[in-house]
Amino acid sequence: MQLFLQASAGLFLIRLAEMINTAARWAISVTIGVAVVLLLVRWLMDAFQVSPFGRVVYYLRRPTDNLISHARSSRFYYPLRQALKFNPSILMVLIALAIVWYVVLTMIGNLTTIITGLALSVDAFGAGNIFSGLRFLIGSLLLGAIFFLMGLMTLVFVNWISGLFERASFWALHRIGPLLRVFEFGGAFAGWSFLILWIALSFAAAAVQAVFF
Q: From CA 7, how far away is CA 152, in angstroms rounded?
């Protein structure tokens, strides 16, 4: 009976990881569609010089106002405008959203890796392989700690690139700040602490998966 329950728990965790991955991809696909439609409508209204004071126009533009404002305040806005010879704000928003969605998918993949590791641990314990079960469990816990730190960095990066989640990113930066200072080497590497820390965490995650899974 205990073996059956452990096998069922392992199978449940594997299916949970698959469901999370599928749901995330569907949610992102829907978000992409809605964002592209709203930006296209906004571009058409600007092209045809539709008055922004109507109720319908106001509600159609409002969801993308912060994204457009953030793009226009970016240091890349004026150089891109000079290079492309047109207003690049909508293009910048689309690129920023694509980067955000890619990063979110990466973090979802990390979460499913942890859940799969827990499932392997449960299955190993159920089969009587105590050493393998402990190995998978320790690996999952280590990955959980690493991906928590990467999640904090993701919030900061998403806010920088799109202006979203301002309050959450402030909290995340406060938590990750001490680690960033550790990786601030100065000299030629001054200002690269964020990238260096991300590379270090990615290497640590790869090492944990190679050794414990």
A: 33
